[in-house]
Structure formats: structure tokens, C-alpha cells
Amino acid sequence: MVSEAGTGTMTAQILDGKAASAAIKDELAERVAALKARGVTPGIATVLVGADPASQLYVGMKHKRSEAIGMNSIQRELPADATQEQVEALIDELNADESCHGYIVQLPLPKHLDTDAILERIDPAKDADGLHPTNLGRLVLNVNGPIETPLPCTPRGVIELLLRNDYDLAGKHVVVVGRGVTIGRSMGLLLTRRQVNATVTLTHTGTVDMAHHLKQADVIVAAAGVKHIVKPEHVKPGAAVLDVGVTREDDPETGKQKVYGDVDPGVREVAGFLSPNPGGVGPMTVALLMTNVVETAERQAGIA
Length: 304
Ligand SMILES: Nc1nc2c(c(=O)[nH]1)N[C@@H](CN(C=O)c1ccc(C(=O)N[C@@H](CCC(=O)O)C(=O)O)cc1)CN2
Known about the structure:
Helix 1 runs parallel beside helix 9, helix 6 (153-163) packs across helix 7 (181-191) and helix 6 crosses helix 9 (281-300).
């Protein structure tokens, strides 16, 4: 926490996801070069169904950043009215494509599609999001040792962002807000692994007295997707707060779409550390996705 001279207020240290993800990209560029020297170009693919502007933005970032570090990127798109069979046929194609080491299906999918069946059809070895039941099952079962499969990108990004800011999670009480599978549920699994050793309270829409739980937290991971749900009065002074959830609304001043996080701006005056939104965990999600794919290519190439 930084004291502002003469004002009596404290301002949280910013956990800068852009800076941390830039450092990861530099490290990955070297690993990609090493793979290329062995004749292997790591390949990442994305499947986008429909034309949701936010999903298009995220998929675009994934390709731009992967290409910038020398990876091969394959962008596949289907219309919003694609059938389950069409999506599954594309999954089968990518499972068989040897130039693709890992891929993701951009979420959320249009409501008429069976998301669980689609994720389950991905070859677990190519599941760059770590959301296949086999990979999530390995995460549940293996609390102690290294895991030889991709880990969910956003939760991995949260932990990496704290690590790169010398924040030790061991023994800390982390309150996670939101139980979605891409963030909340898998966040709890990663945080309670022996290497991390945090204690987790996973809160959700059925939680009674959310404010009470938040106030106990050394670390808050806010991933509810509810604008400014975490208020200054909910935060223990000095706590680390990671703002992960996203709400898009028209800005009344500009009329343009604006990103709002789960954390009220006033939290900055109470927290010790703050990962902002945008500029925090979002860029880390993309960096850890690329890490998952590079690691898969390394495993295949026999690099430890
Ligand atoms: N298959 C998946 N789908 C989705 C995931 C995921 O991990 N796998 N997560 C989110 C979206 N997401 C990646 O896909 C993602 C979200 C945000 C960012 C990001 O860098 N955001 C910027 C702000 C950009 C803006 O909106 O203007 C930031 O936080 O600074 C990257 C990726 C849902 N779907």
C-alpha cells in the first residue's frame, strides 16, 4: 500500500497485468525459437461461433499475440446458427490437425449449442483452456505433484500475476466470488494445491452474507460478472483484490461500450494490492493460454 503524502489516504499497489504478460511473452518467444530450432512450430487454434463483438476482440488478441512470438495461429469461424454437428465436425478436424498443438472454443457459445458436449469432444491433450473433464479431473485428483496437462488460463493468470509481484499466497485466506467453471471453481482447485497452499472460501449467488466473507479475506478474486459488486466497505485494509469479472455497458458520456469490473473504484483507497480491470487479469489470460500451448508443444518434443 502506498501512502499519499499529506492526504492521509492510502492507495493500493497496482498489479499490472499488461507488464506481467509482456514479460511472459518475451520468455515464451525464446521458448518458441528453441522449438523452431528443433523443427517444431507451436500451433494454436481458436473456434469462434457467431459474431459477438467481445468474443471477436478476445480471439483477435489471442492470434495477434501468438503470431507476435512466432507461433502458428489457425482461426476457425462458424456462423451463429451453426449446428451441434457442424461444431463437432470442426473439433474433430482440429483434433486430427498435426500443426495444431492446442486450441480453444471461445465461450460463451450460442445458447442452442451443448457447451459441455463440445468441450468434452476436444482431445484432452490439445485442450489449451484446461476445461476438458479429464484435465479438470486431473486437477482435482493431483494436489501435490506437477500436472502434465494445461491448466485453466484465467485462474493460472491470477496466481502468476501475484507471483510476479512477489505476493506469497501460502497460508492466505482467499475469497473467490463466482462459481463459474472458467474462473471460480477452477480457481479454488489451483489455490489449494500444495505448491500454492492458500485457504479458499468459494462464494456464489447462494452465499448468505457475502459482505461478512469478503471482510475476512486476505485476497479477493472477484469473478461474478456483476458491476462493482465489491465495495470499499467489504475489503479488509491492505488486502489484495483481483478484479476479474467483466460487464459491458454503454458509457453515458461517450455513448460507446465501456468495460466495468466487479470492483468499485473506491476499493483502491482500502486495498493493499489491486489488479485493475481492464489492464489486470485479462492480458494474463491470453499470456497463460499461449503458455499452455507452448508447454504442450515442448512436452511433445520431449523438452522437460
Ligand atoms: N474459451 C474461453 N472463453 C473465454 C475465456 C477463456 O479463458 N476461455 N475467458 C473470457 C474471455 N477472454 C478470453 O477468452 C479474455 C477476456 C479479457 C481479455 C483482456 O485482455 N481484456 C482487456 C480489456 C479488453 C476490452 O474489453 O477492451 C483487459 O482486461 O485489459 C482477454 C481475454 C471469456 N471467454
